[in-house]
Amino acid sequence: METVKTLKLRIKDKHAKALLAMARDVNTVWNFCNETQYRSLRRYTNKPQRWLSGFDLQKLTNGFSKCDGVYIGSSTQQAVCEEFATRLRQFKKQRLNWRVSNKTSPKYSLGWIPFKKGALTYKNGQVRFKGIHMSLWDSYGLSKYEFRAGSFNEDSRGRWYLNVVVKCQTEAKPVQYGASAIGIDLGLKTLATDSNGGKFEPKQWYRESEAALGIAQRARKKARVRAIHAKIANQRKDAIHKETTRLVKAHAIIFVGNVNAKALAKTPMAKSVHDAAWTTFRTQLKYKAMRQCVVFEEINEAFSTQTCSCCGKIPASSPKGRASLRIRAWICSECGATHDRDTNAAKNILAAGLRRLAAGIPAL
Ligand SMILES: [Zn+2]
C-alpha cells in the first residue's frame, strides 16, 4: 500500500547560518511579489482587480536565483511565488505582510525555505539541498522514503526543522486488533477516562518540567521559559499519541464524548488545562481509527455524568452542575451502585454509542 505523510526532523544547529542566508533570499522574493502585486493594483485602478498568479510571479522573478550572492535555487523561488499567490487568493488583501529578515525586529519572520519535489535528496544519513549536505536527527530512517515537496522552518528558539512530504510503502501485514467496544469520557480533572475504569492523565509525567518552568519564570529567563513550554507541549503530544495508538489497537469500536472546550469556556466552568488536549486526543483517535477501520463516533455527552450507568436513572445523589465538580465518587440513591464519576460517564457514553449503532443498523 502506498501512503503519503509529512515528516518533521530537526536539522543540526551548525547549518543554521546557511539556512538563515537562504531565508533572507526567500524574504526578498516574497517582498518583491508583494510589492509587484500592490503596484499592479494601484496602477490599473480603472480595471477590475487582478490577482497575480503563481505563474505570473515566477515569470517576473525569473533569473533571481541565478544572480550572484543568491543562495536559493529556482525550486525555492517557484515555491515562494506559488505560496504567495495562494495566500493572496485566500486573504483577498491588496498586500500581505512583509517578511522581515532583521532578527532584532519584533516583527521578525521566522525563517522559512520552501522547496518543490526533486530539490531534496538523501545520502548516507544526510540530506542534500542546494549543494549543502546537512546532518539531522534522523528519527524516521529517511532512506526508506521518497521525498516530495517540503520546507525548512525555523522555530522561536532559532532551531531549524525539515518538514517534508514523503511517499512510503507500508506492508499490509495482518495485525491483531481487539474486538471490544469502549466509551471514553474527556474530563476537566482527568484527561480521559474509559468505560473499563482506565484513566489517562499525561500531566503527572511532566511535573519535573513544570517545576523548572516555575523557576525560569520567576528568574524572568524568557528563552528558557519558551524552551520548557515547547518541551511540555512535546511531552504531552507524545503521551497522547501513545495512548490513542494503544486505544485503536485494543478496540474495534470507540465512542468519545463530544465535550466542547469552546462552549465550556463561555460558561462559568473553570478553564481546563485540557482545552487543547481534548481536541488533539479526539483528532488523533479519529484519524487513527479511520486508518485501522475501527468504528469511531462522537457521542452527545449530555447527562452522561448525572445518569447512573447501572440502573439508567438520574438519581438525586448524582453529581449535577458546577458545584458537583468536586464530587469524584458517588453512590446511586436508586440502586445503590457505587460510581467513580468519570468511569460512570464513560460507561454512559459507551451505552449511548451502542444504542446509536444498533439503531443505525437497517432491519434485514
Ligand atoms: Zn443506579
Short description:
Helices cover 38% and strands 21% of the residues. With 364 residues, it is α+β, with helices and mostly antiparallel strands.
Question: How does the SSE layout of this entry go?
Answer:
Blueprint: E1 2-11, H1 16-43, H2 54-61, H3 74-91, E2 112-115, E3 120-123, E4 126-129, E5 132-135, E6 146-154, E7 160-169, E8 180-186, E9 192-194, E10 199-200, H4 207-218, H5 222-250, E11 251-257, H6 261-265, H7 275-291, E12 295-299, E13 329-331, E14 338-340, H8 341-360
Parallel strand pairs: 8-11, 11-12
Antiparallel strand pairs: 1-7, 2-6, 3-4, 4-5, 6-7, 8-9, 9-10, 13-14
Judging by the overall fold, what is the CATH architecture of the largest domain?
A: 2-Layer Sandwich
Strand order of the largest sheet: 10-9-8-11-12
Number of domains: 2
* Total number of helices: 8
Strand content: 15-25%
User: Percent of residues in helical segments?
Assistant: 25-40%
Rg on CA atoms, Å: 26 Å
> Tell me, what is the CATH class of the largest domain?
Alpha Beta
Stretches with pLDDT under 50, minimum 5 residues: 171-176
Biggest sheet details? 5 strands, mixed
Number of strands: 14
Overall pLDDT, averaged? 84
Describe this structure in words.
With 364 residues, the chain is of the alpha+beta class. The chain is built from eight helices and 14 strands. It folds into two domains: 2-169, no CATH class; 181-359, Nucleotidyltransferase, domain 5. 38% of the residues lie in helices and 21% in strands. A hairpin with a 4-residue loop joins strand 9 and strand 10 (199-200). It binds zinc ion. Residues 308, 310-311, 313, 315, 332, 334-335, 337 line the site of zinc ion (ZN).
